[in-house]
Amino acid sequence: RQNAEKFEFQAEVSRLMDILINSLYSNKDIFLRELISNAADAMDKLRFLSLSDRSILGKGEQAKLEVKISLDNDKKVLKIRDRGIGMTKQELVSNLGTIAKSGTSAFLEQMQKGGDINLIGQFGVGFYSVFLVADYVEVITKNNDDKQYIWESDAGGNFAISEDPTGEQLGRGTQINIHLKEETQEYAEEGKLKELVTRYSEFIEFPIYLYSSKEVEVEAAEEEADEAAADEDVSDAEDVADEAEDEEETEEEPAKPAKKETVWEWELLNDAKPIWLRSPSDVSEEEYTKFYHAISKSTDTPMTYSHFKAEGDVEFRSLLFVPPTAPPGFLDNYYTNKAGLRLYVRRVFISDEYEDLMPRYLGFVKGVVDSDTLPLSVSRETLQQHASLKTIKKKLVRKALDMLRKLAEDDKPEEEAEGVTESDAAAGSSQKYDTFWGQYGKAIKLGVIEDGANRQRLARLLRFHTSKYPDTWTSLEDYVSRMQEDQKQIYYLAGDKEAELAKSPFLEQLLEKDLEVIFLTDAVDEYMMSNLPEYDEKKFQNAAKDDLKLGGKKGKKEKRVREAFKGLTAWWKGLLGAEAEQVKLSTRLATSPCIVSTSKYGYSANMERIMRAQAL
Ligand code: ADP
Ligand code: MG
């Protein structure tokens, strides 16, 4: 366009677009999902703002928050129009030219490693997927605070912005004109578009319409009839005639010759009723999975989910999912992650950055919370201070932990179950939960440290390797069930590698007495144990500490030997000086002559090693 102002894409965006426009990637379908999801986001933002100022919505057609998809006459241009918040000129420059989030490099890196373009939305650069199918794109947009602008680009490293010479006919919102590439003309088929919307965008909470054509039979005499004749029922007129003989319209004799005619109409493609408002018994497994795809911007199947309604002083509905793999950066950005559950108040989307809805360690849980109790108050900040939010959080955590407990239990082989050997059952081998543990075990451990109120619930979710079952996961419940009759404590030993632990002199007596010892090799393990003094009323005992007592009263013989070696221990202590707290005789070893242990309240050698590594 003439008089357009030219801009260069940020270098990374430019690289990303190069890759996309030249992509031979076969699944280009995802662009539609990404654009519809942006349209829905833009309408969510508008609806949220309208809570404090209704006039923002506008009147009549303008106030209808919907997405409309259409094709132009020669079927080369696909148009997607929303009545969302739109973009000001400044926003066009920054949103569609630079990256606010650090998404692109991460995404490019993933793609170079053979990653999946499908995940583009997760990296906050979904818009650019339009260049999988387009060689030229126009974004026409109108925000209440600015004029109507056109952004355009053919992906050649730059884009242009100009004021729309045709005026401001959008009123408000955004229309994207996608000029399809020669080889992606398949997206100019109504059938294809319908299929994609139903497959990928079924759960968008705004109506999505496609301008579609329909062949209808028109009776010759009515040829001149107005649009009303092209009503949906017309195509079914014959069927209706057979069944509903008493209806007026069918009284005319049907003998007149019928003629075909094409009518165009806005066809609604989705049922915008939120899935979480439905009763769990009415929602199929497949629908849950599809909904998960919609909110997670992925295509995998969730590990498990929980759909419930909380009643009482605070009412809300929620649908929670555990992703099959930990979200990228979940542990790396543990203290800065913002992404949370999608919070709605009476169906109005408020935010998905509510750290307050879930504790950090459950940050991997995806889903929605919709509350009728919270006020539709004007700002996110005041909502944050609302007392019910705390109650909601508390209940959500319980429900999430319940869901995980069920995952572990459902998965556990029944002891009587056929084909399950006794040792399998004893070791509690459970594939699904094993996978969960592999992905999220660390989060559960952090939970033990951080969430005092749910510590015992979390403890039930822990899994360990032990001296008896070094290759399968043991729960504390399993451990306790295998304890010896007079065994009072749960023994553990922490170190670098399990193979080393198994040979440790600290274990000599324990193993000799056939006592099971839990092996801890994760850096956070020992710190976690210091927060978990007991389980099922059994105290934990670190085998590396010198208060390890293995039953039996101190015998006379022991006392005598102690006396006899007093000279040696005194000499030794003198030699080590302040390096050692004390040097004493002990009965805990079987073959090794001596060990360096830690006093009850001191840091174990392993803990010191970890602290040194972290330079604490
Ligand atoms: P994300 O949606 O994760 O932010 P995208 O690349 O899909 O990343 O979109 C980038 C940004 O462009 C959005 O955050 C939004 O600000 C803006 N945007 C895209 N599409 C629209 C639209 N239809 N209406 C308003 N703003 C939009
Ligand atoms: Mg997006």
UniProtKB/TrEMBL annotation:
<dbReference type="GO" id="GO:0140662">
    <property type="term" value="F:ATP-dependent protein folding chaperone"/>
</dbReference>
<feature type="binding site">
    <location>
        <position position="82"/>
    </location>
    <ligand>
        <name>ATP</name>
    </ligand>
</feature>
<feature type="binding site">
    <location>
        <position position="380"/>
    </location>
    <ligand>
        <name>ATP</name>
    </ligand>
</feature>
<feature type="binding site">
    <location>
        <position position="95"/>
    </location>
    <ligand>
        <name>ATP</name>
    </ligand>
</feature>
<feature type="binding site">
    <location>
        <begin position="102"/>
        <end position="103"/>
    </location>
    <ligand>
        <name>ATP</name>
    </ligand>
</feature>
<dbReference type="GO" id="GO:0005524">
    <property type="term" value="F:ATP binding"/>
</dbReference>
<keyword id="KW-0732">Signal</keyword>
<keyword id="KW-0547">Nucleotide-binding</keyword>
<feature type="binding site">
    <location>
        <position position="101"/>
    </location>
    <ligand>
        <name>ATP</name>
    </ligand>
</feature>
<comment type="similarity">
    <text>Belongs to the heat shock protein 90 family.</text>
</comment>
<feature type="binding site">
    <location>
        <position position="34"/>
    </location>
    <ligand>
        <name>ATP</name>
    </ligand>
</feature>
<keyword id="KW-0143">Chaperone</keyword>
<dbReference type="GO" id="GO:0051082">
    <property type="term" value="F:unfolded protein binding"/>
</dbReference>
<feature type="binding site">
    <location>
        <position position="38"/>
    </location>
    <ligand>
        <name>ATP</name>
    </ligand>
</feature>
<feature type="compositionally biased region" description="Acidic residues">
    <location>
        <begin position="220"/>
        <end position="252"/>
    </location>
</feature>
<dbReference type="GO" id="GO:0016887">
    <property type="term" value="F:ATP hydrolysis activity"/>
</dbReference>
<keyword id="KW-0067">ATP-binding</keyword>
<feature type="domain" description="Histidine kinase/HSP90-like ATPase">
    <location>
        <begin position="27"/>
        <end position="184"/>
    </location>
</feature>
<protein>
    <recommendedName>
        <fullName>Histidine kinase/HSP90-like ATPase domain-containing protein</fullName>
    </recommendedName>
</protein>
<feature type="binding site">
    <location>
        <position position="174"/>
    </location>
    <ligand>
        <name>ATP</name>
    </ligand>
</feature>
<feature type="region of interest" description="Disordered">
    <location>
        <begin position="220"/>
        <end position="260"/>
    </location>
</feature>
<feature type="binding site">
    <location>
        <begin position="122"/>
        <end position="127"/>
    </location>
    <ligand>
        <name>ATP</name>
    </ligand>
</feature>
<feature type="binding site">
    <location>
        <position position="87"/>
    </location>
    <ligand>
        <name>ATP</name>
    </ligand>
</feature>
